[in-house]
Design goal:
The complex is a heterodimer. By secondary structure, chain A is an all-beta fold. In chain A, 0% of the residues lie in helices and 52% in strands. Chain B is 0% helix and 54% strand. Chain B contains no helices and eleven strands. Chain B has strands spanning 5-7, 10-13, 19-24, 31-38, 42-50, 53-56, 65-71, 74-79, 88-95, 105-106, 110-114. Classes of the chains: A mainly beta, B mainly beta. Chain A binds chain B through residues 32, 34, 36, 41-46, 49, 51, 90, 94-96, 99-107, and chain B through 4, 33, 42-43, 45, 48, 55-56, 91, 93, 98-101, 103-109.
């Protein structure tokens, strides 16, 4: 069965520090992979997506993610975090065969210290 | 475009009452999704439509929940009768094209509280 795991429920970093949010997936084929961000009281907004090709993808707000097939991972990174990045981040897998499934991870809540 | 529109933004009701949540997807999008978000279970897909037709409702928790999409610009999620455990934030999202590949655009959500 398809699944998405975000092992870190909460992460705290200082402003200006680098960030890496982990995402592991389980899926038999090559999935479509997404990272979304949810600010308090808001809906989810797409940060970036991976379908095929270059395994390092760039997104909005200075975020990037790297697809590593051997590790079934799609970790999100940012070299220097801003206070406005404090939010909840969701990794998602979109299945590519059979009945459509778009599975979200449980989310990682990011806190940024001034 | 105004994005996905949901109404109401907040709903407080008493147990046993009927609740109707509304969603207007982005014009031209052919997929519409209803999600529920709670602290305990995270973000759950309840049902999704393609071209106004329900495709997968396996996430609908029970018969008290129903969803309709009478036309391309409107969908409702109804809970009857409501229970306190239905308290959650309900999101509507829409996308264009192949569901697994298309970016989903989320509405601001409806925060439902059932007393």
């Amino acid at each position: 069965a398809q699944s998405v795991t975000q092992p870190d429920i909460h992460i705290t970093v200082s402003e200006g520090a680098s960030l890496e949010l982990r995402c592991n997936y389980s899926y038999g084929a090559t999935p479509y992979l997404f990272w979304y961000v949810q600010s308090p009281g808001q809906g989810l907004q797409l940060l970036l997506k991976y379908f095929s090709g270059d395994t390092l993808v760039q997104g909005i707000k200075g975020f990037e993610a790297e697809f590593k097939r051997s590790q079934s991972s799609f970790n999100l990174r940012k070299p220097s975090v801003h206070w406005s990045d404090a939010a909840e981040y969701f990794c998602a897998v979109g299945t590519t065969s059979g009945t459509y499934k778009y599975i979200f991870g449980t989310g990682t809540r990011l806190k940024v210290l001034a | 475009d105004a994005g996905v529109i949901q109404s109401p933004r907040h709903e407080v009701t008493e147990m046993g009452q009927e609740v109707t949540l509304r969603c207007k997807p982005i014009s031209g999008h052919d997929y519409l999704f209803w999600y529920r978000q709670t602290m305990m279970r995270g973000l759950e897909l309840l049902i999704y439509f393609n071209n106004n037709v329900p495709i997968d409702d396996s996430g609908m928790p029970e018969d008290r929940f129903s969803a309709k999409m009478p036309n391309a610009s409107f969908s409702t999620l109804k809970i009857q009768p409501s229970e306190p455990r239905d308290s959650a934030v309900y999101f509507c999202a829409s996308s264009f094209g192949l569901a697994g590949k298309g970016e989903q655009f989320f509405g601001p959500g409806t925060r439902l509280t059932v007393l």
